[in-house]
Amino acid sequence: MSVFVIQVLVKYLGGLSLAAQVEQELVQAKKNILGSLIIELAKSKGRALQQEIFNPGTTTLKDFITIVLNGRIIPHDALTTAKIVDGDEVALLPPILGG
Amino acid sequence: MNLIRVNLTKKSIEIQPVPTEYEKYGGRGLSSHIVANEVPPLCDSLGPENKLVFAPGLLTGTPAPTSSRMSIGGKSPLTGGIKEANVGGRFSFHLARNGIRGIIVEGQGSDWVLLNIEEGQCSFKPAGGYIGSGNYALAEQLLNAQGKDCGILSIGPAGERQDLASCISSVDLEGYPSRAAARGGLGAVMGSKKLKALVVHPTKANRVEIKNREAFLEISKPLAEILATSKTAFSQFGTAIMVNAVNEVGGFPTRNYHQGKFEDASKMDGKALEEWVKKYGGKKRVACSPGCVIRCSNVVMDKKGTHATSSLEYETMVMNGANLGISNLEFLMYLDHFYDDFGLDAIEVGCALGVAMEADLLPFGDEDKVKDMVNEIIEGTKNGRMIANGAACIGKHLGAKRLPVVKGQGFPAYDPRVFKAMGVTFATSPQGADHTAGPAIKGRRAYAHKDYGELDQEPHKVELSKELQIFTVMMDSLGFCYFIGPSYEQAITNVKLLNAMYGWGWSVDDIITWARSTIKEEVEFNQKAGINKKDNAIPEFFRKEALPNTGHKFEIPSKDLENIWDDL
Asked: How far apart are CA B137 and CA B120, in angstroms?
């Protein structure tokens, strides 16, 4: 058992909750990098979520997917450097299309 | 296709083929073109010189999916500038199939009337007996008398009274007057003309001609399939699906824009609404107009299983929920029904109530006091009338310092400090603060290949808003719902549809030029009406006050907003 546990609350908002089949969950991250967590999540949730958030055949996020870390929007180009720590909240947002 | 010109002063009706100068216009393009050509910019919006234009889109009445929206235009009594308010319901579809490209209502009547359109013909009917009637009772009476499948546009008591936040209501596919051409107070213009309602009958002979039907269907069928399969979350949860996402990024108007996150947002989100609808026997996946495949509307029942309201939408829920510190879904249903029945713009009045709470006229979060204020609106007390005249009116009267208003029109439910490009749209649209004029939010890109940056960052947001505003004119002019997505890529599809229908041979550049010319006409009308570049401004408190959760301010330079339309 590792003492370096990074447990984060992950929220799947809007239509992404349908693809992930869950609205939120506690997840143990394998690495402390936000971008790695997103890839882990997509792998564990399977094809439906991958299709929603990634460009076809890649692990690159679609432009209109928003990642929020503790209430702050993280630009896609900062995902590979953004650090996560135990207790963080991560939200995956679908396109916000109007209302 | 014909144009109906109704003069209420002379009690005359002329039906003529669409004149050459108007023949390539529909929807917003047509309404703005007519208003710019025919309405004196300095006229009294509530006087006989103003005109009201009802215009289906160029594709309305065809098999193109989600193309049955209508533009209603005139000089707005709220902004003092040109206005287009967009609405769903049955009316536009039936009007187009009657062979009518538009109705121009001129003058001012001495007696209340309604207009009846049947098999391409138009006639007056007396409407004195309906005065004082709410939209719900009126719709029921008219549908019973004229036929259950008719399309109806009407005003409620607010429009009769010429309250500046009054809307024009449209009967939906379920038979409820739940859709609203809400923004800009065009209900007051209709009331000033003593026009209570318009009724259009379904036609036996479809008069919409498609020159190359095969080519048209080759484009419209795949478009329908894509829309139906790509917007399923919208269909399931309605526009309330946006609640959690907008709250999460901290751009959720809360307590008159003091905060961007609402602690009780989950009580009024898409899931909460969906559960309510399931539990009490309402409907979801409801189309707001014929041929809509997105179907994001709903019918909401109360706890007794009787109709509470249709359709409870994101904007109404936020501006009258979080914006007032209220999260009670049942209360929001009650308010939504009141607005539809009395004929008021739920965004404008929600915004006005937020300003009134800010100024201590009533406390944030107090549902009972809001109910009291609703009664004051109905009774027509001084405060009630000022609320019904919009956020600017009540704000000025109470000396409120934080007025979320541009060009006289209250803000919709996006905080511009986070939704930067939406803020640009609010500030610069010729329509005043209007989220539908250039819905520059996450997920919308005017050109797929362009990188406009994160939604909460300043770079490229003037460019994004401007491009989306132009593409939105295109959507509004074709009768398309903007939820399809205004973009260059959609413009390619739109040109193919127009060319197949009308045989025009247009290029994508042609349609962009055509949309730009409409914005140009709108801006020029406003300039002549006294609205100039300096009015392209975001309220100062959005620049000075940082949002508590995120620290965001609106920092796009004023000059960039002022000069946005310089190259039209």
From this structure: 27
